What we know:
The complex is a heterodimer of chains A (344) and B (329). The longest helix of chain A is centred in the last third of the chain and has 19 residues, at 288-306. Chain A has helices at 10-20, 94-107, 114-122, 169-176, 188-202, 219-222, 227-233, 240-244, 288-306, 318-322, 329-337, 340-343; strands spanning 2-6, 22-29, 32-37, 62-71, 74-79, 87-92, 123-128, 153-158, 161-166, 183-185, 251-257, 261-268. In chain A, strand 4 and strand 5 form a beta hairpin. Helix content of chain A is 32%, strand content 22%. In chain A, helix 7 (227-233) crosses helix 9. Chain B is of the alpha/beta class and 329 residues long.
Amino acid sequence: MMRVCQTSALPALLARFAEQMAVYLPAEEDGCVRFSRLAEGTVYCDRIPTATSPKGLFFPQSEDLMTFHVQGKSIDIADIPRENEPFAVFGVRACDVHALSLLDRVFLSDPVDTYYAARRQNGVLITMACDRPAATCFCGTFGIDAASPDGDIVCTLAGDNYYFEAKTDKGAHLLACADSLTCEADTDALTQVQHTIRTRLAALPLSDVSADAFGAGNTATYFDLPVWDRLSSACLGCGTCTFVCPTCQCYDIRDYDTGHGVIRFRCWDSCMYSDFTKMSAGQPRTTKAARFRQRFLHKLVYFPDNNDGVFGCVGCGRCVKHCPVSAHIVTVMRTLGGDRDATV
Amino acid sequence: MPTVIRDAIIDRACALLQNGTVNRVYGWRQGAFPFEAVPTVFADAAALQAEGIYDDFCAANLSKYLISEIKRDTARILAFLKPCDTYSFNQLLAEHRIDRERVYILAVPCDGMVDIHRVRTAVGGEVTDVMRQGDTLTVTTLYDGTVTLDRTKVLYERCAHCKSRRHAVYDERISDEGAVCDSHRFDEVEALEALTPDERYAFWQRELSRCIRCNACRDVCPACTCEQCIFDNPASGVAHKAPSDTFEEQMFHIIRAFHVAGRCTDCGECSRVCPQHIPLHLLNRKCIHDIDRLYGPYQAGDTADGRSPLTAFTKEDADPSDGAKGGCR
């Protein structure tokens, strides 16, 4: 069922949601748009993409797992109490909600990551159709429709109105608590808006980026190409692309020495880092070119190999925007997917 | 950057490739957008002529790349270096990181590089192209048509406060000799110094709380050339891949600023690459300003053979306690 409210009513609507649960939304602070918890004075910002993705709300950059406390000859091992509260995330875009479905494939398959699973269970995704996709967007390359995102509640801006459609029970439940602030609506207005959005998507500068040459079973096609050397030469080996990426899921588990014991925590890791997956006998990828290749083939070939052909990139464009040397996935896809004889 | 300058630079580099003076050229090619410049090695004059660019977006300092590039073989590498890049190169020479004979520096002119983030912020929209005519930029956007901007208002901070248009070292120069500029680059440092310690702490806590610990600042820094950074060494006891709290991030950035103190040339790459737009250069600039005041004016990378104030003791040196409380003011 569709509900509608005027754009001016959005703050009241979000405040109503916040009476039920914590609400996170994109807000601007010091020039950066990030998902922040709704508080007094927080204003929704529709500029995309956000500097970092909403991934961190489900899979935080750093989280404590357990503590070890040493006293004399005994060691106390204690679980860290977990937050187990429901929360809503407003303004999630089609790319980022699709990215969560990719993380689900990793974290919700056996053995289930209970930390992530709890947050997915507790989280209500209020997604937003992209009325103004960014110049760096290329979600269409991976079959994502930014005019019609997945989510528990899907929101679409049409003129001066926000339209809301609940897609799941928990979405319907949350939306119902704001019924006094919205009216019933039909879907006519949406058809026109979705058509406009799709026209805009088709005209984006990166809309021609094709994933056709990639996908499952292509490891041998790309693995040994000499062009990796050239593609990776500009790469700084920093973790920017991995940390702004909504689908990167690698983490490390480390112990922090408190002086009287240990706090065991996990944190995002980057395949671009020299000590990534370091083993007792050394580490598997010793050169920058090998690490660079790993990141892109993981998105374009290995992830599809292991996940029914689904790509590990969602075309959010954050790495395109933030790579300090523009050695990002679009450059890689255009080079590898183009005339390979000319580029090797 | 006028295309006539691009052509002169690329033509000269092609000639030096063809006559065997150099074997490879470190320059830039265009990325996915007209305002993306990807640092690139060219071994072939035809490819360089076809793909090589030099424009307002060739901001990346190529000096540090030369450390690994010369290790590949015995080839001689031509590098396009802008004035501020040459200070980094000199500093790397002083630290014996690069063999001078292996590099041919083609000094290229620069009147400031355009910060695409500032362009995006200024037009408040989705930028697809930027064209320059004199000091005017014509910006093409997706939804707001074309917008014209004053180029001088959207330069990188380091360029708006350019310290020098003089090339500190080169083999050949494609421009007239530039001069050291009256940069006013310490104005912002002095504004921070004028704050109370609590206000200053609040300023840095707010800025550094955005850090995602991607290490781009360190990885791009021409003064950060350790074979293995202590923060990447799992055995060091201080290796952390994640910001566990904001205080830890301050430690990381402050330790890094101290580690490069006296060696940082103020090239500004740290702030350019930060995906969270943290003004990291201000930490380094504070150290530079203190060194200037304690030991007399000093510019790292001005020459390749000078001894820096922090590594050369003289009896006239400032007493460490002079700057003990709240730094030097």
